[in-house]
Amino acid sequence: MWELIRANKQKSLMLFFVMGICLVVLGYFIGGAYGGEEGTFFGLGLALFIWIFMSVISYFSGDSIILKMSKAKRVSPNVHPQLFNVVEEMKIAANLPAMPKVYIIPDPAPNAFATGRNPQNASIAVTAGLLSKLNRDELQGVIAHEMSHVLNRDILFMTFSGVLLGSIVFLSHVFLRSMWYTGGRGRRYSSRSKGGGQIQMIMMIVAILMAILAPLMARLLYLAISRKREYLADATAVRLTRYPEGLASALEKISSTDLNLTSANKATAALYIINPLKPKGSKLSNLSSTHPPIDERIKVLRTIAGGANYINYQNAFTKIAGRGRRSNIIPSSAIHDKKNIDLRTIAKPEPAGTKKGVRDLGDLIRAVNKYVFISCLCGMKMKIPPGFKKTEFPCPRCGRINQVPIAELAVLAGVTQGLEKQHPQKETTPVHKQIFAYHRTGKSWESFNCPCGSAKQLSPAFNKDFFYCNKCGRKIEVKS
Known about the structure:
This protein is an alpha+beta fold. The chain contains 13 helices and 13 strands. The strands form five sheets. Strands 1-2-4-3 form a four-stranded mixed β-sheet, with helices on both faces.
């Protein structure tokens, strides 16, 4: 395993410098095209600055930027206990030093990705659609695939390379568009000397060629290695779960959806387990795709036999994707690992949609967006948004007046000190000095009355030691 990780690091470093050199050379010729000899040094310096600046940003804030662009929201175990349970299982199986942060993207399209600097600072994001569509074994396969990217040190490479590729494409587009609008003007040295004009013309031609070819070359190199990393992540996921059918079935379900992931874009598409920008039924060429053909990945997984070792995956890959020709996607040290890992068999797969917490996709999206769920005595389930201002409202079914659980809204919205500011302790009012203790009997929904008579409700998500009554301001301590 350590040989595999070291090989991945070496390839990542090589690709990082090759793409960086592409960026610098492009900047050199673009500068020369506009400013002659002096311009080459300016273009070189500008490209170096972009390379260093974007690399620093990518290293320290790349994961945060990607998560924000993807509209991912960090959630607690209360929102989806099964997801956290699976992530923790795969973290232990992968022997990672820290638990990845868990995010949910409130989107009905099923997909997932991982990001971060290293295994100590990793994040895994899944869509609400993925959680509603997959059963536990399929979810485990997807999480194992994303955990494999963390384990194999792919996440930093993908962040770095994506930013560098974006920089090369941006610089090329700016230059070519400027040529279009200026008509190639700006060769100010052409009037000084014939030799200077010829050199300027050569630099302009080379710059145009570089602006066209550099993004293509960098993208082809990036995609070629990215596709191998997807296969390698599939192989590692099989090793972690010992159940290739779980991942194969998940890929089949994700690829069969008609829904588009609205938060995905060209900068983040390569991070996802399946390309979120590929419309259903389209036939993109392998050269322009950020992922290997999904049908091949599924066939390889379902051809694995004899065990969950890397050599078993390599044999299946050679048979299906390699068309019988030996094409190693796994380092030789990992292939020659003699440790026997038996495949896991499941007599009856768990049906999709079985969850201990939120069962419905719409409810899950609302839970991620910090809604509070309360049930009326008549059985009607109601959803309260985090910005709800009223203290009570009637049930739309029976008309019974229900109290708004302000404490619940505060917990799910991340407000802890706001309640105390809303009801400050007043020495002149005796009731504000009083403390009422309520003893919880479990972790389900519970209702009780404050001494002032107002009804209170506590949900399973409530995990604070106290809150303040929204009617009298009394401090209510919650004891378990």
